[in-house]
Amino acid sequence: MSEPSQVNPYYDRQTNTYARSWDDDGTSLDVLHPQRDAFRRLKAEVIARGKYGQLLLGRSVIDLFSDVDRVRFHQNAHARAASLNGDGEHLADIDWYARLLEALDTICSAQDGEDGAEALHGGPSDNPWPLAKDAPTWLAEPEEAFEGLAKDLIAPGAITEMASPRGLGKTQVSLALGVALATGGRFRGERVKPVRVLLLDRDNPEAIVKQRLRSWGAADAKNLRVLTRQNAPALQDKAAWDQFPLQDYDVLIVDSVGASTEGITEKEGKQTTEVMATILDLARKGLAIVLLQNVTKDGLNFKGRGEWADRADILYEVRDATGFTPSGKKSWWLELPPAGEAAWGERAARRKSRVDFRLAFIPSKFRLGVEPEPFCLKLRLPPDAPWTLDDVTEQLLMAGEEVRREAEEAKQQQIEQAAHTLATAVAERAIKNNPILKTEAETFLRAEDLTRREARQTIDDYDGRLWTVERLPGKGDPQALLPLGVAGSKSFGGENGTAGKTKPDTESEMSISAARMGSGGANHRPANQPQEQAAGPGIFSAEASEKPAWEEL
């Protein structure tokens, strides 16, 4: 180890501050009071300024030894520069991560006579156990406010997986999302913060990727970089991923996991674990990662080992919702068409000759907080116009509500029609002195395509409106439906005893009863009763009043 440096143009030992400015871009970096603590961290307040002294990040406390803290500082400085619109364009290529490493090297050399690499080697990563803190101290430490990058889908340091059958459109969604993030566009109706995105596509030919990105407006997306199958490393290429320039990107999109892990089957648990370790290491350093997965033929599970789902922070099942309209009777995502490969014919029929497609996103895992509601995105891919991606969840809900309302109206009309049909039958049976029992009425309504519950409810609802439900004398205390205004005890077996039965067994028996009560009654008239009076009109006689008999009672 060399002696501590006494003279350095950027570091002042007396004030323990590091200050450096760059004339070519007008930026500056200040590191105030760097101090090692009991946990062998080099904590300091860091200030980054843009052109003309414009503040980018002020008094951000970081651990200069921490690679995660340096990356995060670099990302936040770039995000702040991007928010300055045109004033921040000249700051887009500044490597604040490298500048912090230079500051670390200068500070360590001036304080201890060792360069930054030596200090880092002997830093916290050498022995992690002293870093453990008591809970009150740890909870009292300030922390940056958490902020997602895309609504319910992408967040710094989180691994998001989207799983669906092949060919559904998740690649198109990922491309639209990448362009929106790189340009500060809109996603699900919200303006997103511009960030730096790397698209790693080993799944599609380069010409296809170019054509799609042009249609999504990527020609102006300077913050979007692309690696296709010609150059993109496989996820098991540890040497390549160890060199990943973490300070250059905020979001990594991998399309797809299957194409990026070729040769690894479900049996290779060790290799899968090693690949996941690479991805987790990047996520722990603040990188937001989006992984595209395909599912099995039955559409129930995604391909690969269960570790992929275990390690994900956010997991979405993506289903085809093209041409789908919910019934409104239950949650719309519970009524989606089958997702399995066996349903390809139905899916092809829904998608035939269309340029617009709907994809439903149903969360099955969300570690970041309360699980969000499922949502539906509409892809519009016209051949001669820019492509668009819109959130149509609200339209889907409204369509379901309209379908439910129309179904309720149709059902009510059906019930009303059935009720009036029953009322006609009630009147006809009453004329024949053969009232419809309540159980018969239920059977009658079920023959009109009403359910048992609907039939019983209809009988109760229209009691007093189209008929009355009254008890009749007889075994079992039967209930019958009578026309309005008719008293059952008087007309059907009550005090006058005109009807010996509540329901004749056969139609012939009804005719016989009518004959006996009508013209045939002459054989049983008293001897002193005149012939004309005995043959007078009865309630079932053809000569009876046009007014129904029960209205004359």
Describe the structure.
The chain folds into four domains: 11-127; 159-391, P-loop containing nucleotide triphosphate hydrolases (Rossmann fold, 3-Layer(aba) Sandwich); 410-503, Orthogonal Bundle (Arc Repressor Mutant, subunit A); 505-553, no CATH class. The protein is of the alpha/beta class. Helix 1 packs across helix 2 (96-112) and helix 13 packs across helix 14 (452-461). The model is unreliable at 1-6, 115-125 and 494-553 (pLDDT under 50). The chain is built from 18 helices and 19 strands. Strand 7 and strand 8 (190-191) form a beta hairpin. Helices cover 34% and strands 19% of the residues.
Descriptive keywords:
4 domains, disordered C terminus, 18 helices, 19% strand, 553 residues, Arc Repressor Mutant, subunit A, 9-stranded mixed sheet, alpha/beta
What share of the residues lie within helices?
A: 25-40%
Q: How many strands? A: 19
CA-based gyration radius: 41 Å
Mean pLDDT, rounded to whole units? 82
The third-level CATH topology of the largest domain is Rossmann fold
| Count of discrete structural domains | 4
This entry's quaternary arrangement is: single chain
- Tally of helical segments: 18
Strand order of the largest sheet: 10-9-11-12-6-13-14-15-16
CATH superfamily of the largest domain: P-loop containing nucleotide triphosphate hydrolases
CATH class of the largest domain: Alpha Beta
Q: Per the principal axes of the C-alpha atoms, what is the gross shape?
A: elongated
Computed structural class: alpha/beta
Largest pleated sheet: 9 strands, mixed
Terminal residue distance:
122 Å
Low-confidence stretches: 1-6, 115-125, 494-553
Percent of residues in beta strands = 15-25%
CATH architecture of the largest domain: 3-Layer(aba) Sandwich
